[in-house]
Automatic annotation (TrEMBL):
The lineage of its organism: Bacteria, Pseudomonadati, Pseudomonadota, Alphaproteobacteria, Caulobacterales. This is Heat shock protein HspQ. Keywords: Stress response. Residues 6-99 form the Hemimethylated DNA-binding domain. It holds the Pfam family YccV-like. The gene is hspQ. It comes from the Bacteria.
Length: 104
């Protein structure tokens, strides 16, 4: 029997990394690990992985992180409407997708 996993976080959601000092917004979700063939460290590949647009002192960067190292960040304000319009397409149901992808 195949087990179906549901991603805990959605596009546009603000998260923080439990072990590293950054917060960011989810911009893409993979149902399982789809990075380079060799995983480094004790990471389970059979969980959702997220591309997180994080902001640091030198500007923005993309991080590929496993679900089990991310958590909701209640201390960070949600994106403003202007930020949403700049970075995402948002449909009538509030779902987010990177500007380069269309929502269906």
């Amino acid at each position: 029997m195949t087990q179906v996993r549901t991603a805990r976080f959605g596009l546009g959601q603000i998260v923080r990394h439990r072990e590293q000092a950054f917060s960011g917004v989810i911009v893409d979700v993979d149902p399982t690990y789809s990075g380079p063939l060799a995983l480094t460290g004790p990471v389970q590949a059979d969980q959702p992985f997220y591309r997180v647009f994080a902001v640091g002192p030198e500007g923005g960067f993309i991080v590929y992180a496993a679900e089990n190292v991310l958590e909701h960040d209640p201390e960070v304000e949600p994106l403003s409407r202007a930020d949403e319009a700049q970075w995402f397409s948002v449909d009538a149901m509030g779902r987010h997708a990177p500007r380069s992808h269309r929502l269906q």
